[in-house]
Amino acid sequence: MSAFDKIIGYASVKKELKQISDTLKNREAYDKLGVSAPKGLLLYGEPGVGKSLMAIAVIQESGRKVFCCRKDSPNGDFIKKIKATFDEAMQNAPSIVYLDDMDKFANGDERHPDAEEYVTVQSCIDEAKDTQVFVLATVNNMRCLPVSLRRAGRFDRTIRVAAPHGEDAVKIIAYYLKSKRFVDGVDPAVIAKIMDGRSCAELETVINEAGLYAGYERAESITMDHFLKACLRTVFHIVYDDRSDFEDEPDDCSRRLSDPDHTISQVIYHEAGHAVVSEVLCPESVTLVSACCTSGDVGGFTSYYNDNSKTSLYWEKSRIIGSLGGIAAIEQKFGISDLGCERDLDQAFDRVRDLIVQTCTSGFRFHNNNYSNSERLMSEQEQAVAAEVEKYYRKAKEILSANWEFFEKIAVALAQKKLLSTVDIQKIKSECKIIPVAV
Ligand SMILES: Nc1ncnc2c1ncn2[C@@H]1O[C@H](COP(=O)(O)OP(=O)(O)O)[C@@H](O)[C@H]1O
Ligand SMILES: [Mg+2]
Asked: Which of 63, 175, 410, 439 has the highest CB neighbour number within 10 Å of its CB?
């Protein structure tokens, strides 16, 4: 088994890593051609995406001795440690210097391009230039590093490691599920959509957390509901409180939908509005709808997945209309204005402004350029933005009216369960007649 087999997915990154480790292991093949092997590799990306796992695979496959350096001592001592690591690596060449989380070498998260630590790393790399020392670094935040350190000749290869997406995420989830006792029918593809954009470390944690919920209940196996609760807790930082507003007595569902001051019903219908408008415009895009509140707060959320089957302009417009779906739902259902929906409005205005000013969807005259950045232009832009938002708002109301049955059923389900996954939404959708609306 190759060390690279531990890396699930990431085919193109893996291919590049294999090539690099080949240049370290089989130098003669490259020497014969008169080429010099890369001197360094920088792996960068969000925490938890697998940079260390990949670096270790390269090290193991290279067969070289490794000398590792991590920030674990005060500044003065640490400078000495950096120098000692490079010295040892040079004495033991061919070897690898592994600088893990190099952006943490200087203090804090801010940019310190002149920090002594980076200057030291840079001069050590230059000193080791003509030796068989390969420098491998991982970095969470590239902006912390001085540009000179990142340049070719020091780190010849730079690879971005992004959070897993699509098929890669499905494979990683399936891998983590393999060792757990999940009920049949838990589909890695469904989990992958819900967790899109999350790191491997988060995927691993959420799946394990689902198991903890199941264990605490002494359940025989882990269900999708356990997973959803874990997801809510770990990803959205909301505790699924079984005892909160949602006591599970049969009559409670209708009480929640018609509470006199609309506190709970507004949350439910608001989220149902987002979900219905988004689902009608982009089928299977809604991954989670929640009427759960963060501690003490009233509120819910709806999250989305973009499978890229629509053009990006259509997706943008759908997201704008979807974000107005909550406010539209409250007006249509209760005939009142939705309070506390500033975030939805901000989102709609920001996205519309981008379309008008940057993409020029309403004409080139609204484009900002160096010569016409006047107050008059700005005021015209803002008028155009407000008119567009009004137009999208009418569209949201049209979609809800045309799909009222779907809207009411989502609200009832949300009142019963307070957390709906894409599976629940698709089931409800299949029981309703869906009327598409052109945008
Ligand atoms: N592609 C992957 N396949 C399998 N497990 C992975 C993958 N990427 C990351 N992991 C796991 O996720 C966790 C975090 O990975 P790590 O390499 O420490 O991330 P980083 O160094 O980017 O912070 C580890 O348990 C690691 O084994
Ligand atoms: Mg790491």
From this structure: 410
